[in-house]
């Protein structure tokens, strides 16, 4: 049984949204950094900080909420490709989430990118997660 850092990150963010917690700490890997950069660029989180403690690197994500009731910007975050079943797609078959309102995050040969960027670059890859 291996460590799935992407699934751990997704679960941590989902649980923090349910508890309306402002910050989340996740292990820092190249994949989690790439996902955090995309979430920041697309406006789902406020910012993230790369940090190190006891020779272990981790990211601190500052989640974004709106209004008095603290409604989360990330309503759904779901892992697509898992360690037991990898899901790949070419650029023509990348699914659209909510008719383009949400995003799909892919791992490609060029790096981690959104579905819109992958279609524009005509690159397929492994579908990591849905965000909306």
UniProtKB/TrEMBL annotation:
Pfam family, one: Ribosomal_S8
Subunit structure of this chain's protein: Part of the 30S ribosomal subunit.
Designated gene of the protein: rps8
Subcellular location(s) per record: Plastid, Chloroplast
Name of the protein described by the UniProt record: Small ribosomal subunit protein uS8c
Predominant localisation class: plastid
A GO biological-process term: translation
Any Gene Ontology CC annotation: ribosome
InterPro entries linked to this entry: Ribosomal_uS8, Ribosomal_uS8_CS, Ribosomal_uS8_sf
Keyword Ribosomal protein in annotation: yes
Function of the protein: One of the primary rRNA binding proteins, it binds directly to 16S rRNA central domain where it helps coordinate assembly of the platform of the 30S subunit.
One GO MF term attached to the UniProt entry: rRNA binding
Assigned keywords, A-Z: Chloroplast, Plastid, Ribonucleoprotein, Ribosomal protein, RNA-binding, rRNA-binding
